[in-house]
Specification:
single chain, mainly beta, seven-stranded mixed sheet, 2 helices, 2% helix, globular
Length: 381
């Protein structure tokens, strides 16, 4: 795979291109090279009174719409589509830590102000504040029912909440340090959590009980992701539901990536990377790991990866500390195509959610930006 540059653009570019005689900056940067800065210029086409967009010879204009601008980088041949947010919600006053969205348009998010809020992702209207964690909430997720929330935080606890009433019927206690990530197995009878204490725990939600340490003694674990395997294993415990064909992948501060068959409690593989693993996700049968040196299999940037989420059709999104939020495809046919989800002005993308229609990116600037997946997927067809 040939090395591609990272192309970035002024965060409010979509406002600039609506008017004539305006300009915005656009920049390209190859890894370990200086940035090359250019300008996007607008003028009024006198023949049809439409806005005309022009670039230097470093870029070839392809198309634009209200929320998108597509260009080709001349030197690399990279096609880059910039997509602006459909909406930007500011439900928090401090930097976002985690965000999740459900198919019923509910959203839940946490911030550095130690608030965990349920809100309407269509309007931004706050519904509930979920109070009970003793400190920051590092991860929040919806159960498949879309009306129950799982959260985990610095207090070492995982909590189950009703997103309709705010009641917290279950608290999962057992970790001795902060819980950094969580996975929900099938409908949610069981959940997984990973912690700075070096353990990955399997929980029985109904009895608020830890069924097993899936992993222990690994040093700080930063992230986890769940996938399905063809290797099934008969589970005799009636309190353990849906684990027979599940594999959990964890990423550690030490750079270790470990995969474990949940039901068998058996390690499948481990790989030592050179830098801390901050985020991981599963796309098709591939494990995508984002590290603190910015590297994945696509080593375009040295900026730390903070968040990852998988999308349909072999796609995934990478959120970085510099505020870039980029969609990639695993397919070779699109190795020279990127979609950049814009709006953050160099503020890190702490977490990303996808509910089947909308991509939501939670940023250090306290905004949750919402992008239409149709605006993204069209560039990979």
């Amino acid at each position: 795979m040939s090395l591609m540059p990272v192309i970035t653009i002024q965060c409010d570019w979509n406002d600039v291109i609506r008017l004539p005689n305006q300009q915005a900056w656009i920049s390209s940067k190859y890894l370990n090279h200086a940035s090359v800065h250019d300008k996007v210029l607008t003028s009024l086409n006198k023949t049809d009174n439409k806005i005309k967009i022009t670039f230097t010879n470093n870029y070839q204009y392809i198309s634009h719409g209200n929320l998108s601008l597509v260009v080709k980088h001349t030197d690399s041949g990279l096609k880059i589509a910039f997509v602006a947010p459909t909406k930007s919600h500011k439900v928090h006053n401090k930097a976002i830590l985690s965000v999740a969205t459900a198919e019923n348009s509910l959203a839940v998010s946490s911030c550095e102000e130690d608030k965990l809020l349920v809100w309407d992702s269509r309007t931004g209207e706050m519904k509930l504040e979920l109070k009970g964690h003793g400190g920051p909430v590092y991860r929040c997720r919806f159960f498949p029912s879309c009306v129950v929330v799982l959260s985990a935080g610095a207090d070492g606890c995982c909590k189950i909440w009703s997103a309709e009433s705010g009641i917290n019927p279950v608290t999962l206690k057992g970790h001795t340090m902060a819980v950094t990530d969580i996975c929900i197995i099938d409908r949610g009878r069981n959940v997984l959590s990973v912690s700075k204490d070096g353990t990955a725990k399997l929980w029985d939600v109904g009895q608020s009980n830890c069924l097993s340490n899936i992993l222990e003694g690994q040093g700080t674990i930063n992230c986890c992701a769940l996938t399905t395997t063809s290797e099934e294993f008969d589970v005799n415990n009636e309190r353990e539901v849906g684990t027979s064909n599940k594999v959990v992948v964890v990423g550690c501060e030490s750079g270790l990536v470990i995969s474990v068959h949940v039901a068998k409690r058996q390690e499948v593989f481990r790989k030592q990377l050179d830098f801390a693993c901050n985020a991981c996700t599963i796309v098709d049968e591939s494990i995508i790991v984002g590290c603190s040196d910015g590297k994945r299999e696509w080593p375009e940037s040295a900026n730390p990866v903070l968040s990852l989420v998988s999308l349909p059709n072999h796609l995934f999104v990478v959120g970085r500390q510099d505020g870039t939020c980029t969609v990639y495809s695993l397919l070779d046919a699109y190795e020279s195509t990127r979609v950049q989800l814009t709006g953050s002005d160099c503020d890190g993308i702490r977490d990303i959610a996808f509910n089947g229609k909308w991509i939501s990116a939670g940023s250090r600037d306290s905004n949750v930006r919402k992008y239409d997946f149709n605006q993204v997927g069209v560039h990979f067809k």
